[in-house]
Amino acid sequence: MNKYEVIVIGSGIAALTIANCLYKNKNVILYTKSNKLTSNSYKAQGGVAAAMEKEDTWEEHFLDTLTAGVFHNDVHHTELLTKNAIRYLTQLINDGMEFDQDQSGRLRLGREGGLMKRRILHSGGDATGKNLMDFMFRNVQDKLTIVENEMVIDLIVQNDQCIGIVTKAVHGEIRQYFAPFTIIATGGAGQIYKFTSNVETITGDGIAMAYRAGAVLADMEFMQFHPTILYKNGEILGLVSEAVRGEGGFLQNSRGERFMEHVHELKDLAPRDIVARAIYQQLHKGYDVFLNITQVKNFDNPSEKFCKSISYY
Ligand SMILES: Cc1cc2nc3c(=O)[nH]c(=O)nc-3n(C[C@H](O)[C@H](O)[C@H](O)COP(=O)(O)OP(=O)(O)OC[C@H]3O[C@@H](n4cnc5c(N)ncnc54)[C@H](O)[C@@H]3O)c2cc1C
């Protein structure tokens, strides 16, 4: 029987990134609750941010990120993220990951909330998450073991050390597995909200099991709300990417007022918390909120010129 050195819980981008870093030196096994393609990462549409243009710098990306985080961010980690994003994405491109380019071969960069510059790389239009995850799965296949449809329900802790996991398999069997290292990459908790674009497995399990094991949780009062999802007849039909506002889409209330004009200098591209709060205030006043896409060129769905938007992630 294989002896595994690292257990990774989850099969999103966080899990695959760490597995990709470790598999050369460690025997890695990954457990995921549903099938391996079920993750928010697979559904991510808008793209990934990095200062890839010559006219852009990681320092500007760093500052935009701190501003969007109202300077509550961990400065060291924000610096690591914005600096390493350039190196990491360059490496991905060199390894063969394809991001959308214009006719001259330059990356076609989009703009999203809180960014002062176009900085979003995308792949296959709005299929960035799917394309990136497929690429990463291809890279790690045969290099690690992936166990699907087995939900991790707890960590096994002995003398303040995590020594393994307890799982529940498809037919309800409870199993235990042991390894010197366990990495939790189970994503967030979007499914606790009535309206959400998150996949059904994103229920905060990792946060809860870490807490039960004695980990200290930080910043639990913060939940990121993506401002726009498509809501029709009481049903959520999917997320409307911020890239739509980056290409000229704008918010209006049912009186036709462009209410973001007076809220923030970046208007409809203000940081997400500001846009989400402004939408909430409109709803609270009794107005509906719509995303006007008439100015967005080559939009795929001309019959739906107005998307009704509500601010739940
Ligand atoms: C519709 C949508 C669009 C988005 N678009 C963008 C975008 O354009 N750009 C961007 O940067 N971000 C985007 N995001 C956010 C982004 O997808 C997430 O921040 C990111 O994917 C999180 O990655 P992760 O690996 O931490 O978690 P996830 O990708 O959510 O993966 C978590 C994994 O853990 C598994 N899991 C959960 N609980 C257990 C358990 N108990 N046992 C075993 N496995 C478990 C899940 O099934 C899943 O495989 C979007 C999110 C959504 C929902």
* CATH level-3 fold name of the largest domain: FAD/NAD(P)-binding domain
CATH top level of the largest domain is: Alpha Beta
Q: Determine Rg (CA atoms, Å).
A: 21 Å
Envelope shape: globular
CATH level-four homologous superfamily name of the largest domain: FAD/NAD(P)-binding domain
Helix fraction by DSSP (H/I, runs of at least 4): 25-40%
CATH architecture of the largest domain: 3-Layer(bba) Sandwich
Order of helices and strands: EHEHEHHEHEEEEEHEEHEHEE
Which ions, cofactors or small ligands are bound in this entry? Answer: flavin-adenine dinucleotide
Structural class: alpha+beta
Walk across the major sheet and give the strand order: 11-10-14-13-12
Outline the low-pLDDT stretches.
Answer: none
Strand fraction equals 15-25%
- Mean pLDDT level: 92
Let me know the number of strands: 14
Structurally, how many domains make up the residues?
3
N-C termini distance? 43 Å
Largest sheet: 5 strands, antiparallel
Number of helices: 8
